[in-house]
Amino acid sequence: MELNSSLFLVWIFPIFLLLYLLEKKQWRNKYLLFVSILFYAWSEPKFIFAILFTTFLDFHLVNAMSRIESSTKRTIFLVASISINIGLLVYFKYFNFFIESFNYVLKPLGVGELSYISYLLPLGISFYTFETITYVVDVYRKEHKPQQNFSDYLLYILLFPKMVAGPIIRYSEIASQIEDRSSFETTQNRLNGFYRFCLGLSKKELIANQLAYYYVDKIFYINPTELDGPTAWLGIIAYTFQIYFDFSGYSDMAIGLGRMIGFKFPENFDNPYISTSITEFWRRWHITLGKWMKNYIYIPLGGNQKGTGRTYLNLWIVFILSGLWHKGSWCFILWGIYHGSLLVMERLFIKKEHSDSFPKVILTFILIAFGSVLFRIDNISEAFDYYKALFFSNNNSFIFPEIDFWIPFFLAIIFSFWGFFKFGKQLQNIFYTEVKENSLNILLTISSCILFVISLSYITQSGFYPFIYFRF
Predict the structure, then answer these.
(1) How many CB atoms lie within 10 A of CB 448?
(2) Does the annotation mark 354 as catalytic?
(3) Active-site residue, from 286, 326, 339, 354
(4) What distance in Å separates the CA atoms of residue 210 and residue 213, rounded to the nearest whole number?
(5) Which of 26, 24, 62, 290 is nearest to 157 (CA)?
(6) Contact 195, 444 (CB under 8 A)
(7) Using CA atoms, how far apart are residues 372 and 219, in angstroms rounded to an integer?
(8) Is the peptide bond preceding residue 167 cis, with omega within 30 degrees of 0?
(9) What is the pLDDT of residues 415-451, one digit of tens each?
């Protein structure tokens, strides 16, 4: 089940929230856990048992590890826990990618092809794996004590607003909220959560899906060799907007839903397209993934403490793994190499000075859009054909979008870049203010209800589009 499905929005969401509010506080975690298991089992009835089993195993492994003094034995438990979780991820997400790569190498040698396995990628397995690793590593490092209550630990892992596509949350960030979140369960917090939920839903339905429906999907279904340059550029720019409003829309819905039930999840986006460099972009885009990569890969590799060359190598490793995290695909590996290379070049050739230059914002956006070809197309040959279409003109004609494309396209431009300007920042600050005047609450409540109804009508009209990051 997805947060933007009609079933969830019309039935599950209001019923779940009403029952949660009516529930006594001491039973709310049990109720949340029950709903979270149902939510996941709805989409993955087979895999839910694997999740429950590995979570149970992890819980006891980590607790046993925390009671051991010997560093060698602690490390053995750490490796065992990580191996279980990484093993699941590798099997479900990368097995066929390795088979495909082996077959490609072995085919010229006349060796018979290895067989692929047939299965569907379990929903949210990448996010599940990252959170279980943060838990075991943080306990290993003695940064926090392990949870003693299995159902509370299971709730941390399965909490349905963030289980499938993040934000990626370290256990220490919400441990206290799982035990007692009464201070967050205020009317203002719930209203702020509702505003955020409706904002995310409208970003997904009114902008991202409309860009896909009226232009992006049509362009990427065409053979790239049949595209002219302006069409290819408009297609990839529209897709770059689509993926932002799709993923940040989901994050807003997850954060908003969390707020309505008393949780305060970390932010995942901060106006990424107003960045004046790729380095700044990665501080603003998928923030929780960036922090995870920094804390659990970049710093353990040595970070920037082992010389310039090693720093650059570490950056490349982190971004190659980041690309691979998205999907077992050579296009995603190239996408990681591309972004890692841009970061290294910025450190080599650009002075560290902050400059609020809008041309730099546009240049950074174009570099990001250029890399998005590898993010969208899952075949290296087709991706390079698309790059050829971007730069080499041919006799094909420009494919004009339908008139309905331009409204979401211009909305995407406005809401992507308005944070760069003083007026846009002021409006954002008003929206994100924790405590609001009654008049503002009334205005935002009415606006949010209107956005909710319009978004729902668009789901009916345009059809259901799953979130892009659900496939990761």
Answers:
(1) 20
(2) no
(3) 326
(4) 5
(5) 62
(6) yes
(7) 14
(8) yes
(9) 999 999 988 888 888 888 777 788 889 999 999 999 9
Orientation angle between helical segments 308-326 and 330-349, nearest 10 degrees: 150
Tokens of 438: 């009654």
State pTM to two decimals.
0.90
**Cα(250)–Cα(258) distance, rounded to whole angstroms?**
12
> 139-159 burial, b if ≥16 CB within 10 A, otherwise e?
bbeeeeebbeeeebbbbbbbb
Do the beta carbons of residue 390 and residue 222 sit within 8 Å? Answer: no
What is the SS3 assignment for 348-364?
Answer: HHCCCCCCCCHHHHHHH
CB 244 within 8 A of CB 273: yes
List average pLDDT for each run of 10 residues in the chain, which is 472 residues long. 82 92 89 91 80 89 89 90 85 79 77 70 80 90 88 91 83 88 89 95 94 92 90 96 94 94 92 94 93 90 85 90 85 93 88 75 95 91 93 80 92 94 87 82 93 90 72 64
